[in-house]
Amino acid sequence: MLFRLGLSAIFFAAWLSAPAGAQSQTDANVTRATLDNGLRVVIVRDPLAPVVTVENNYLVGGNETPKGFPGMAHAQEHMAFRGCSGLSADQIAAIYAQLGGYMDADTQQNITQYYVTVPAQDLDVALRVDAACMANVDDSQQQWLQERGAIEQEVARDLSSPQYKLLMRLNKELFAGTPYEDDPLGTKDSFDQTTGEMLKEFYGKWYAPNNSILVVAGDVDPPAVLAKIKQYYGSIPRRDVPGRPEVNLKPVASDSFVIDSNLPYLLTAIAYRFPGTDSPDYAAARVLADVLLSQRGNLYALVPAGKALFAGFQLGETYPKASVAFALAALPAGASADGIVAEMKKIVADYATNGVPADLVDAAKKGEVAGAEFSRNSIPGLASWWSQALAAEGKQSPEEDVAAIKAVTLDDVNRVAKKYLLGQNSITATLKPTPSGEPVQSRDLGARSQPHRRPPSP
Predict the structure, then answer these.
(1) How many whole angstroms separate alpha carbon 397 and alpha carbon 402?
(2) Which H or E run includes 103?
(3) Is residue 422 part of a domain?
(4) What is the largest CA-CA distance in the chain?
(5) Adjacent-strand bridge partners of 102
(6) pLDDT tens per residue, range 205-253
(7) Residues spanned by the domain of 199
(8) By 3-state DSSP, what share of the chain in percent is helix, strand and coil, each rounded to 5?
(9) Full DSSP string of 114-172
(10) Does residue 266 share a domain with residue 198?
């Protein structure tokens, strides 16, 4: 969910002050530009395959939704496929079907992303369609009434997941009084009160070229692509964008709760508020989470000892100002969570007090760097890697994350462990098996910043 606003003022200034068409390159295959209307463009050339991914990142998400309408950004994401400037919903669906590629979208806490992967020869069409949706959308009441059923099905699907219910409850407690307390998925009640007019107003406030980062990655000729982008996007007027909501975090209040679950096992989690992507502690926190997850670590040792079906540690929801981390254990249905919770707390506290093993830190750093490099192995992965770094995390390039991980020291990890595992309260949450006869819907608690993806159009 998202998978976080946090683009620094310095970063914005650096982009916006660049003259139109000005380019800076981190390497020969990366071209950057800012159009006169404020649209920031990054073109990453990679001849890995004769395909290209266009990913448009609007800097708006769950954070910016109106009070009482937590799914407004998610609803607008859906409605962008229901008709744009000069294109009907049927035409959009037909175009993407004819291209033979893949298109999708997702809404996170601080960004809404639209992406399409097509043969490189069809890039022109993909850019024209995307630019049309930046220029204007229909957002008609009739189209919203048709789309509302689909988005409410997504709500029903996620709410059938006990893990999702647990995450929603934790967000409410860890981030009370901030935009992070409400997931961008939305609710059926809020969608029932939403209108096409409200969506159009939301679009008008946030869907501006100067509130977007366009990433194009693949087997392309960057100068030719930039010329096309100027042609199709350059005439779209920039607009004043509203101020961002503040995120003022309060101290975590210690708590524990139990939620009935239709999972066939008991799942218990000890949740900690970790640093967000804006924090200088974030890289060390990622390494710490990997250390605690290691199968050579003491949490996982609970499994071969016969004390748990699974045990480990995960960095989950990540936002600019904070994230959520969990010590997790699964037990057979009917077991009590008390003993394993006490044991996990002791293991985590011992690591934080006495330090983590240096060899596990080295292994975790290598794993993080390798994972980042694996993102280069596909064109969509490459576009997503750049988009997440630039739009979600406010970095200048994804290599900043890699460099930050490489710079983490054992002392950094131990300092962060003391600060976030001992220096604040935690929340214990348990999913208790309560058979209901309904199908089991599962969701990985540890997947970072799960976006709400729109199912592809037929």
Answers:
(1) 10
(2) strand 102-107
(3) yes
(4) 65
(5) 117
(6) 999 999 999 999 999 999 999 999 999 999 999 999 999 999 999 999 9
(7) 9-233
(8) 45, 20, 35
(9) EEEEEEGGGHHHHHHHHHHHHH-B---HHHHHHHHHHHHHHHHHHHT-HHHHHHHHHHH
(10) no
d(CA 329, CA 307): 9
Tokens of 90: 């049927």
Same domain for 214 and 292, yes or no, is: no
Strands (E), 209-354: 212-218, 255-261, 265-274, 310-318, 323-332
- The secondary element (H helix, E strand) that includes residue 429 is strand 427-433
What gap in Å lies between CA 101 and CA 274, rounded to an integer? 38
Cβ atoms 92, 34 nearer than 8 A: no
d(CA 376, CA 384) in angstroms, rounded, equals 10
What φ, ψ does residue 402 adopt, rounded to 5°?
-60, -45
Q: In one letter, which amino acid is 313?
A: F
- Give the H/E segment covering residue 107: strand 102-107
Q: Please tell me whether residues 15 and 156 are part of one structural domain.
A: yes
Shortest CA distance to 344 belongs to which of 332, 328, 330, 357?
Answer: 328
User: Is the pTM above the cut of 0.85?
Assistant: yes
Check whether residue 227 and residue 159 sit in a common domain.
yes
Same domain (yes/no): 227, 277: no
Transcribe 44-99 into DSSP letters.
Answer: EE-TTSSEEEEEEEES-SGGGSPTT-TTHHHHHHHHGGGEETTEEHHHHHHHHHHH
Which residues contact residue 183 at a Cβ distance below 8 angstroms, ignoring those fewer than 6 apart? Answer: 1, 62, 70, 167, 168, 171
323: β partners: 274, 318
The residue with tokens 């043969």 is 119
| 357 and 418 both lie in a single domain | yes
Output the average pLDDT for the chain.
Answer: 89
- Classify 343 as helix, strand or coil: helix
